[in-house]
Give the backbone structure.
Amino acid sequence: QVQLVESGGGLVHAGGSLRLCCAASGLTPSYYFYYAMGWFRQAPGQEREFVTAINWSGGGTYYADPVKGRFTISRDNAKNTMYLQMNSLKPEDTAVYYCAARKTISSQTVPTSGYDYWGQGTQVTVSS
């Protein structure tokens, strides 16, 4: 059974940094599939949106335009953990951030939708 638990959220001033972590369990690849992972966020009154994703091998990533150049996604499969380093934070980055995982046939796939598993979310608040 897959479980994802986020941590690292909090309150930060604009221009500051935060590092989110996603501890995963049950993400064991098989001959038939791997697990890509991603981060999504949902601001009050808005729909959940894609932020960034990383493939199983960690060599492929994709970022939504609003976070390009400021956020960095990474993963350590040996520790079953994914990270999101967020720099130069802006008030519009304020949201609940969710960790997600998705089965993929290829270890190289970097999906932006269709995720199978979700964490409970962690709040990130950026003050102006």
In short: The longest strand covers residues 95-104. Residues 70 and 125 are 16 Å apart (CA to CA). The mean pLDDT is 96. The two ends are 40 Å apart (CA to CA).
